[in-house]
Design goal:
The structure is a homodimer of 215-residue chains. Chain A is an alpha/beta fold. The first copy, chain A, has a single domain, classed as TIM Barrel (Alpha-Beta Barrel), CATH 3.20.20. The first copy, chain A, is built from ten helices and eight strands. An eight-stranded parallel barrel of chain A has the order 1-2-3-4-5-6-7-8, surrounded by seven helices. In chain A, helix 4 packs parallel to helix 5 and helix 5 packs parallel to helix 6. The longest helix of chain A is centred in the middle third of the chain and has 13 residues. The radius of gyration of chain A is 16 Å and the shape is globular. The two termini of chain A are 18 Å apart. Chains A and B meet through helix 2, helix 4, helix 5 and helix 6 of A and helix 2, helix 4, helix 5 and helix 6 of B. Chains A, B: One of its GO terms (biological process) is 'de novo' UMP biosynthetic process. Chains A, B: Its EC number is 4.1.1.23.
Chain lengths: 215, 215
């Protein structure tokens, strides 16, 4: 993933043609496109490959399983053309280590620690630091941390050193792209504000411009 | 899912033809077939539909995301023909509630609490009771609890009342089917011992016979 616009599109559109149209419109602007299981369930795993021809693809699969299954999922996603896979820390060190080992030389693993939705406060927030340390010890490329709470980006930065931070929650969820980058995020992840707009290319460009003002 | 053999096949085979052959061989014996993401990544989401013509299908997707994504995954899996989806509790009550609401009238949700691999001791085991209560409060059909530790099946039973318990870990991982049922499991989940054998139908039948001795 080149560190250019610092912008990642969360392509949570499940219609195949619409998803490809949006990818075509923004592939020159964003540094990567992040997809999730609903698109695979609706349009098939071939979408990973088709999108990877347009942009780096991050599979936000929030993998949370035993090591052997983690291996098969990461291997399958990278084999289809993904550049990175997002994995939960809370299933423990052996599962995370397996993800990193499987991706070695082929792609990157990003770890989920704290989650930004209300339910994330029940189990993930109280364990956020320990969850981040699982990722650090296992050698992940970076972490997902909510742009809706810039103080949490700064807090996680202290634990993870110079590893990358990818911040979702910008736009429709209320977070600010420039505030997230200023707080220490390496990339911001934007979904609905781009893919639901009438002009995804323009919106992506505007956000990239906003980010550039604080770099 | 009819409560007949009390046996569920974990079909962790990723080759499409082999998977369908095994499903054909055991569909008369097992109460359900459990699949996971690696099969979807290799053979496509259509496999859910094809297998659902042979047996009840449980999508062991270990869903662990924000409510809207949980909704899309559960909806997609049931729409493809699945009877049930397995969801993590640790992403909190709103995500679990969304899963249960999405499945209402169309299928069932089972909750993962404690996990049986070594990494499961780091975050899931210390929170096992609280994780089980998330499922109880949200109205899940049942829970996944490791057959490798029958004492844990008995412990979780105290928290969840008469909801179902599905126990993986029988066979290759060392758990005993009859011991798991005796400890209070409603179903045992068997994978490699069946699908990697030369005669899946016979092995499944033998395990079903073993279970019958303790009913």
């Amino acid at each position: 993933m080149r560190k250019s616009s610092r912008l990642i599109l969360a392509l949570d559109e499940t219609d195949r043609e619409k998803a490809l149209d949006i990818a075509d419109a923004v592939s020159g602007t964003v540094d990567a496109i992040k997809i999730n299981w609903p698109l695979v369930l609706s349009a098939g795993p071939e979408m990973i490959t088709e999108l990877s021809r347009r942009s780096d693809v991050i599979c936000d699969f929030k993998v949370a399983d035993i090591p052997n299954t983690v291996h098969l999922i990461v291997d399958g996603a990278l084999g289809r053309g993904a550049s990175a896979v997002i994995v939960h820390s809370f299933t423990g060190s052996d599962s995370m280590k397996e993800a990193v080992d499987t991706a070695a030389g082929r792609g990157n693993i990003y770890a989920v620690t704290e989650m930004s939705h209300p339910g994330g406060k029940e189990f993930t927030a109280p364990n956020a630091e320990a969850l981040a340390l699982v990722g650090v010890r296992c050698g992940v490329k970076g972490f997902i941390a909510p742009a809706t709470r810039p103080d949490r980006i700064a807090a996680i930065r202290k634990v993870i050193g110079d590893r990358e931070i990818l911040s979702p929650g910008v736009g429709a969820q209320g977070g600010s792209a420039s505030a997230a980058i200023s707080a220490g995020a390496d990339y911001v992840i934007v979904g609905r504000a781009i893919y639901k707009s009438d002009d995804p290319s323009k919106v992506a460009g505007d956000i990239a411009d906003e980010i550039r003002t604080v770099l």
